[in-house]
Queue: 2 jobs
Job 1
Amino acid sequence: MKILLTAIGSRGDIEPFLAIGDLLVTRGYNVTCLFPEQFRDLVVNSNMRFETLGPEFIELLDSDLGKSVMGSDLNQVNKIRSYIKLAKVSREINKKMFQDQIDVINEINPDKIVYHPKTLYPVIWEIKKPGSTIMVSPVPYLHYVKGHTHLAFNSNYGEFLNKMTFKIAEFGLLQTIMTSLKWVGEKRINKNQVKSILKNRSLIYSISPQLFKIENNEKIKVLGYRQRKSKSDWEPDTKLIDFLNNHKKILFITFGSMTNPEPEKKTKIFMDVLAKNNIPAIFNTASGGLVEPGFYDHNLFHFVSEIPYDWIFKKVYAVIHHGGSGTTHMGLKFGCPTLIIPHIIDQFLWNKLIYDAGAGPKGDKIGKITPEKLEPKILGLMLNASYKEKAVTISENMKKEDYDNEILNLIDASDKIHTVS
């Protein structure tokens, strides 16, 4: 059975697909991954074929324009202007990625496509081959859930307006797909056909039910966060080992793949608060959202440029991060109280979910953090025992989750889940 996994986004978006791919390979499936070029190395040594969506999407996120959208403290007007400019610049990139999806999918002719919400052509493939696709989302609220707006709105306006946000999001997605079809000269697909798929498609949320639960639904399932087993040959250096041995209650700080226009300033804010309160911390500079200064107290702070989360999280007390789906799940998996400093859309929702779950205080967005705002939140994170207790309880429940067979059964299913008019 030929399976195509396709996703667009950051490492956190790709990770659940890599994990599903590993599961499928162990069960004898022929698996191809269609991701941005930057993720090639994560695939090529995993007995899966790699096809590229090009490097341009990730390069745009890492550009000055991308950073201004994701991590700046611009006022709302300038932020909207940046979003509009980003949309214009990304037009040609999206056009190319849509064509790449068409070319690869038509070439492979997969029996099943497992796709991310940002990949659009699988919707068209579902029209042509009903029952042949499953959407997997690492973020919640892509379908109507009582008491919540669509993910993009991240609020609660009351039931009538909440439902309207899903209609608005669906309309925007419908228009985007129809525009994409015009780009490639496809005239045989009409709006009603696309709309039917959007309303009836199969959806798996790659999210732990400890954080997100829905009512029973035949087509929509919450089947736990998917993460591949670590295969890294990474080894800690002696300085890191010594730092860990010298402190009993360490805070770990990372912004992962998120960047911002003022990493030096943001890093200093954290270091000033931590130094004032004598809290030892490990900073992961990762993609550059945090930076190592030239001079600092090496007894209180340690900097790394990369580190496996499944290695370090079990050795620290609490974590502060950007609020990606993967990092959020990983921190809780190891029982770490969590403070999220959100940068973009879904991260604000994870911030709220962590707070609502009682596993940490509610954080401020990256562009608005100050020492005055940050200090009480960090002190609460490190000193409020209830946060630790709740994180440990969530961890224990997450470790019991096992949805492998259910996911395989959904992929194996060949029945038509809907009809297309």
Note: Confidence is low (pLDDT under 50) at residues 414-421.
Job 2
Amino acid sequence: MTVLTVPGITNLRDVGGMPAGTSRIREGVLFRSGNLAHVGAEAQDFLTRRIARVVDLRDDSEVSAEPCALPGLRIDHIPLFAGSVASFLLGDVSLTGLYRHIVEGGADRVVQVVRILSEGEPTLVHCTLGKDRTGVSVALALAAVGADREAIVADYAMTASQLPESRNRAIAKWLEERLPIAHDAIAVATQSPAPVMRELLAGIDDEYGSAADYLLASGLTAGELEALGSALVA
């Protein structure tokens, strides 16, 4: 995976290069990031040159508050939560609980994301931070084509180091003041611990057999799964 520094885009990287059996994940095909609402000329140039399609996993309220205007790019809006981000913070849901909610309650939307990736266009998947919704959907796509498990976990865990520390401090202060009993809220808003992703993927293996089997059980076809492998694995 390659971290990319582009002004106006937080937590941007190309996940290509990680091992996948005897092969590797193809570079220049699957990118991930935080939201694209603040891109300037340099970021727009990067997106125009490197990306053909954008998958926006934010909910309607997030998109309305921070819309993305990206001329020349196809944008697919697939809200991955059945509910708002605020509802999870207020409900004091842990990261583990949040990710299970995505996997169980948003399986059809995860499949929509993976189906787009199977088409093989250079695609950027993003949410607000590029951490949870992006992290889960990208991890499942990579796991389904046989990417190395620890490389997937490392890619997910890298997000915490890519979020601006000033932003994390401000978020933690805001949550402590307004949601003092929501003990998991700060972790949900700022952290990406490797054990959480390991636990999620292991749980999917236990319940479905593999990430590929989870996607097939959720509506992905065998042909689409094969196409996903062709798109992502070099």
Note: The mean pLDDT is 89.
